[in-house]
Amino acid sequence: MRALLAACLVLVGIGSNLAAQPQLVILTGTDEEHNGLPVLTHHPQAEAIRQTLSSGFPLRIVRLYRLVQNFRSLRDGIEVEPAYLYLSENQGGFPRYGFILEGEEKPEAAYVDLHKSSPLTGRFGAVDQIFPHELGHVFIRQLIGELGDGGANQIHATALRTDPIVAFNEGFAEHFQIMALDAPDAPPETARLADDEESRLRAVDNLHRYRQALESYFSPGAPARMRFLFWFSQTEDLLRYHWVKANAFARQPRIPDRLLRGGDPYEAYLIQGVFPGLAEGPAKPSSILVSTEGVVSALFYRWVSDSTIRQSRSGPDFFARFGTLSEEVPDLENAYLKLFSVFDSDKPQDVMALIAAYKKSFPQEAQALDRLVNEVFLGQSLTRSPQIWLANPDFKTGTTLFDQYRGLPRTHTFDINAASLVDLMGVPGMSLEVADRIQRTAPYSSLDELEKKAGLPDAMATALRRMSDAMQELRSSQEQGGDLSLQTILMPYILRALLVLGVCWGLAAALYRSVRRIAWWRALLNGLAASFLLLASAWFLEDFAGWESLAATLLVLGVPATLWQVLRKRRLRPAMTTLAAWAAATLPAAISTQTWI
């Protein structure tokens, strides 16, 4: 009854003050800072942007945000703030805290920072999807607090195995992107994305070409890897929708044994970190499932979409804690408020803790939740095992998946009780047989138990103990993998491009001159032109692969030169020699861009 009275105070007393305040405020920067806080101001197109975001899931997420702020105000006396969206020069999306607006310092106020040129609707990864995503992180921070250190030092991705804490945080935020696309009142241009078969097939094609490049024996200039920066972000947005809804990340992707046995399983790591599994593929172990954000995202999507959970309601006191009444809360928002109440009461750090706490708080929904968990985790039981984290200095990954060529190498860390074959095969001296035995006899309470149960050779046991010590050193040093910046990520691509171009240039010049005897300086110019044009078209034009680029290069350079010879000398043989010379000059670049499996 006391909570209901408090709700009435919010609705009647301070509610009148909130009515004059927009629930979504659009901000822009001033390039000023004071007391360590950025000075922001109202965006000049705020009203137009707010109107665009006033329907579909952004409207729901803003209303949920207001209810959470009511909850915090009633509980702690914190001032109720609207949802803030800051359109900035910063690439990407971030939840941030603290700023100054119109001279007023708001050191604890949350806001979402998105790039000012981000499309508002109508594209995968638009503001109407990423804004809810970043608010998801804010909900966790405001209701649970700072999450602990999970152990993984890999920068997360949808398919990448990190740890249960990172997967919980990111999986919760990412499921909002699905909800935004599937909202019944989403803008038409956003709703159409769900049925955009052309985009889905393009993503499939990108992934197919990328897999071929990773599995190839020789492909120094594979276009799918060289232009990874251009295609992966958009493809991952589609993975977060289509493949998460299909729960494809609960199954293991196919990884050729050759990539695991090679000593440095980096290509296998990239496959593991990018690809979903096939529908008929084997299930990942449950310890890996709870550490994979694509799986956690699938669970949250099904959780809030389940009709039993949506329609099951608590009494008036529950809604009064959020400053509202049951009849004012639609079924979807009801599902979220129950999650938020558990976030606040039990402070779960991972999805296993959330499931247990939720069933304790809402026992009438336990059967429905168990059914969802069984579906998403493919019938496997969720049992908490000790986390035994190891750091493998002999296996370096890139600081992010975008760091394809390890410009910022990072020591690979993994939990032995949630280890994939890739994690284990990165250990020097590991065999597939021993790695399989370690997985089958897990979990372990300690490295001593691992040594006994898995029957490890002494050398392997010693190596794992050294990795345990290395993990402790890594935690104390808080290695972050160096100064991550766009320039640092780009540099290995540029150096590789220059190396491939240089080698192809020299070979192209030699091949041209072997067919058509001309001065070396002319052969070098022609070799550079052929190599540069072919590589540029293969790397920067999405629909061009090696042989298509070869044909285009001959059309642009070889055919005009051949026609010139016909017109100038009026003889066919010199013209054909010229065409053959240009064809020979294009071969090195064409070969370097092919995937030889």
Describe the structure.
The chain is an alpha/beta fold. 57% of the residues lie in helices and 10% in strands. Mean pLDDT is 92; it is low at 1-7 and 9-20.
List keywords for this structure.
597 residues, alpha/beta, five-stranded mixed beta barrel
What topology does this entry show?
Layout: H1 2-19, E1 24-34, E2 37-42, H2 46-52, H3 56-76, E3 83-88, E4 93-101, E5 104-115, H4 127-143, H5 164-182, H6 188-191, H7 197-215, H8 223-226, H9 228-245, H10 257-260, H11 266-274, H12 286-289, H13 293-305, H14 307-311, H15 316-320, H16 331-346, H17 351-361, H18 366-376, E6 389-398, E7 409-415, H19 421-425, H20 432-441, H21 447-453, H22 458-477, H23 486-515, H24 520-540, H25 546-569, H26 572-592
Parallel strand pairs: 1-3, 2-4, 3-5
Antiparallel strand pairs: 1-2, 4-5, 6-7
Helix pairs in contact: 3-4, 3-16, 4-5, 4-16, 5-13, 7-9, 9-13, 13-18, 16-17, 23-24, 23-26, 24-25, 24-26, 25-26
Q: What is the structure about, briefly put?
A:
This protein is of the alpha/beta class and 597 residues long.
* Low-confidence runs of at least 5 consecutive residues: 1-7, 9-20
- SS content category: alpha/beta
Strand content: 5-15%
Q: Give the fraction of residues assigned to helices.
A: 55-70%
Overall strand count: 7
The rough form would be described as: globular
For the largest beta-sheet, the strand count, sense and barrel status come to: 5 strands, mixed, barrel
* Mean pLDDT, all residues: 92
User: How far is the N terminus from the C terminus?
Assistant: 70 Å
How are strands sequenced across the largest beta sheet?
1-2-4-5-3
Question: Helical element count?
Answer: 26
Radius of gyration: 28 Å
